[in-house]
Amino acid sequence: MSNLISSQISEQDLEAVLQAISTIHQKMPFLVKLSPGDKKSTSMLDDKRIPFANKALDYATRSTSLSPNPLLLVEAQKDSNLFNNLQSIDRELTSLSAMVNDTRMLAGAELYEFARNVYKMAKISLSLDTPGTQSIVEDLGRLYANQGKSSPVDSVPAE
Q1: Does position 151 have pLDDT exceeding 70, yes or no?
Q2: Structural domain boundaries of the chain?
Q3: Separation of alpha carbons 143 and 82, rounded Å
């Protein structure tokens, strides 16, 4: 077994991290969750379109006759600032999220490898007639055999 990660999160640190996430939600109450349909029907400003949008905003700012409405120009400027700021936040959160996911995956892989070795050792102990190992092998064996399957409660047909 390899031990590529050996860390813990204290209860205090976990609470602080969760509080920081809560603070992010509080600081950005305007965040929305789009449905898949909304995402499909919304024009996206990707990297190729940013220069076009920025230049159009610049022209409209310099020549107000190009703006369809003065209030829309103000809103477009807000949208531009929000887009740029959220893009910076998104990059940092995406990097952090990838690291959290990868670290969680590694910790889970190490735990699973350990569990499989415990099960293997229990089966060896059973073959050596070690007292008390029969129930351990049966209990772990049921769980090991049912990996990836729904539990019996989940598969009960509705009446």
Answers
A1: no
A2: 48-143
A3: 49
